[in-house]
Amino acid sequence: MMTKINFAGIVDNSTIDYPKKLSAVVYLCGCPYRCPWCQNAELVLNAGNCKPTEIDEIIDQLKENFLIQAVCITGGEPLMQRETVELLERIKSETDLLLKIDSNGYFSERLREALPLLDFFTTDVKAPLNERYGEVVGLPDQWQKIVERVEMTLNILKRWNHQKEARTTIVPDLIDRKEDIEKIAMLVDDVGFTLYTLQQFRADRTLDPGYERIQSPSPELMRELGRAAKKHLPKTKVQIVTQQNGFEEIKTKT
Fold it and tell me: Counting Cβ atoms within 10 Å, is residue 52 exposed (0-12), middle (13-18) or buried (19+)?
């Protein structure tokens, strides 16, 4: 019997999802969070193009793409589905592609299974590890359980000596304070991430339509927060990404 996975589609060629490599991006469906500012509402809610799809079909699409060097599995939350590990195993055994996952860090036990198959791992650190986390992900009553799971993921990643990125989305009036970013930066340093990315919230098709009326943080604020993070991460690459300017690395002032 062919294994199926809840799948939304593939972007054939991306220059931004795997650093310095041309990659395909595989979108999987489902997410345990309800971040009100999320732009992938259809993936979170298993709506839109989401449908059970044979893993064979996904593998065939990747094999037909002769331009790419890597593949990024994203969502939604790709590790929410146990079939994702089989998808990773198939990609690793049947292609020569470098393999990366974008995750929110909630499914730490499934992460243990996935990590030996990966070349690069990106995880969200959405807020400091306190009650703010529940607020930012839209589940304030579950913050303790969520923080416990994220802490487990970070502890696993401490012992994984490959390329790993932490990522925080800057959302006005929710997660945009310098002191919050400094707390997250100290976590990033403790885990030993090789890259920390601050990404600009965009008011486009958000899970909570009210967030479509919120203005994106300015590039100036993004740089200010990037500099606040860099103070705690002198040996780690820190970058911001905005609609206006794309990726900008934050350098240590000399």
Answer: exposed
Residue 171 is classified by DSSP as: B
Provide the token pair at 80: 């929410």
How many other C-beta atoms are found inside a 10 Å radius of the C-beta of residue 239? 20
Summarize the confidence of residues 78-91 as an average pLDDT.
97
Extract the tokens encoding 147: 């923080």
- Count of alpha carbons within 13 Å of 48, Cβ hemisphere only? 16
Q: Write down the CATH superfamily of domain 4-250.
A: Aldolase class I (3.20.20.70)
pLDDT at 48: 86
From the CB of residue 153, how many other CB atoms can be counted at a distance below 10 Å? 23
Q: Whose structure tokens read 């009210």? A: 210
Residue 70 has pLDDT above 90, yes or no: yes
How many other C-beta atoms lie within 10 A of the C-beta of residue 57?
12
Cα separation of 33 and 238, whole Å?
26
Statement: the pTM of the whole predicted model exceeds 0.70: yes
DSSP run (H or E) holding 219: helix 219-230
For the beta carbon of residue 17, count every other beta carbon within 10 angstroms. Answer: 21
Q: Rounded distance, CA 235 to CA 238, Å?
A: 9
Residue pair 191/158 in contact by the 8 Å Cβ criterion: yes
Mean pLDDT calculated for residue range 218-225:
97
The single-letter DSSP state of residue 251 is P
Which distant-in-sequence residues (6+ apart) come within 8 Å of 82 by Cβ? 110
